[in-house]
Design a protein that fits this description.
The protein has 4 helices and 4 strands. By secondary structure, the protein is mainly alpha-helical.
């Protein structure tokens, strides 16, 4: 099992979850350089400490992830396969996730705006 951060976090990036994580598996810890934060499934110990701390209810246990946000499991997993320090790699990753349809509606608009203004 893993925990995933989903659509409500896009463009919010409240870091309360980072502060309570006992294994520091939520990245980037400062929320910089990306339109949302991510949980590393290889580091997460499934303690659930982060879930109740999220003010926008964006964190879900794998089995509780709403179907319309299933793409966020892939987004969280794939994020940890790129060079997160390289803005070009982050931009390519976000564009790939947009093309795959993992970001939709207002979240897609926010991600596109982030790419245009920040990367």
């Amino acid at each position: 099992m893993a925990y995933w951060i989903a659509e409500p976090c896009v463009d919010v990036k409240d870091l309360a979850c980072v502060e309570v994580c006992p294994v520091d598996c939520i990245h980037p810890t400062d929320g910089a350089g990306v339109p949302l934060i991510f949980i590393d499934p290889d580091e997460c110990i499934d303690c659930g400490a982060c879930e109740p701390e999220c003010p926008v209810e964006a964190i879900f246990a794998e089995e509780d992830l709403p179907e319309e946000w299933n793409g966020y499991a892939e987004i969280n997993t794939e994020f940890f396969k790129i060079d997160r320090e390289d803005p070009a790699a982050v931009k390519t990753f976000l564009e790939k996730m947009l093309t795959a349809g993992n970001f939709e509606g207002e979240a897609a608009d926010k991600v596109k705006k982030f790419i245009e203004e920040e990367l």
